[in-house]
Amino acid sequence: MSCLKARNSIAFVSEVSIEYLKRALKIGSMARKEVLKMAFVNMFNDRVEQFNLREENERLAELFSDEKLQEEAQWQAYSVKEISRLFSISEEEALKLMNCGLFKTYRVGNEYRASKKSVEENKKIVKAVLTYQDKKTMSVPDVMRILGLGKTATYRLINQCRFKTYLVLGKMRVDVDSFEDWYAGQFHYEKVNGERPGKKYGKTLSPLTVAKVLGIPRSTANDLMNDGIVEFIWVDGKRRIKRESFDKWYASQSKYTKVKEIEEVEGYVD
Predict the structure, then answer these.
(1) How far apart are CA 131 and CA 143, in angstroms?
(2) CA separation (Å) from 16 to 21, 27, 30, 194?
(3) Torsion of CA 93, 95, 97, 100, to 10 degrees
(4) Which Pfam families match (predicted)?
(5) In terms of Cα–Cα distance, which of 261, 262, 156, 162 is closest to 206?
(6) Contact 83, 92 (CB under 8 A)
(7) SS3 for 133?
(8) What are the backbone dihedrals phi and psi of residue 138, each rounded to the nearest 5 degrees, phi first?
(9) pTM for the whole structure
(10) What is the pLDDT of residues 188-243, one digit of tens each?
């Protein structure tokens, strides 16, 4: 009985050993494949790096044909920080300026630099853009502060093309003249601190103003327009009474008497 158990144990151990050897050989084969795969990957990466280095040298050779200039390449170009100081802009704006394609750029080490020659050639253009940005346009947050609006309401006006907008150095800017022209032609929005809206229609009156001047309900002022007694125009979907027509009608009747002057009311009524 003990001999039988021993033979069975030996057979079991043999089966286990054979299975282990098979797995070991299989794992070894997979490991060899992985090693070969990594070798090919490393070889590919080396070739890519060599190709990039060759391309970089060709770009340097194209930009600086003289060998001496190639050695002094980093001294013949502006870094992002130097462009930032040169044009008095932030480093973020300087980087966007370099990426917009206006300057000829190349890489020195881990840093991109712009050719001094291309920067000097385009300096007037950049300064003109920056001057336009500072004096002729304003940022979206500026519009928000002027009108006392939130971000959503402000961008709704922009998306409705109420005034002209531009992208300057990757940022949206609002044309000041276009904004003022829009502001003068509407009555819905009013500046927090500044002139009243609707300057284009200064010779018109709102029904609410007429109601305040005559001391009558607003509905009665609307009836003056509905009955054709006074002339009116439409501005932004709302009716406004012509000042000349109102004055002419007022002088021809005796039913209504002014309780306030128009100038007094216009101080707080649009």
Answers:
(1) 19
(2) 9, 16, 21, 92
(3) -130
(4) HTH_17
(5) 262
(6) no
(7) helix
(8) -140, 160
(9) 0.49
(10) 898 998 788 888 888 899 999 999 999 999 999 999 999 999 999 998 888 999 99
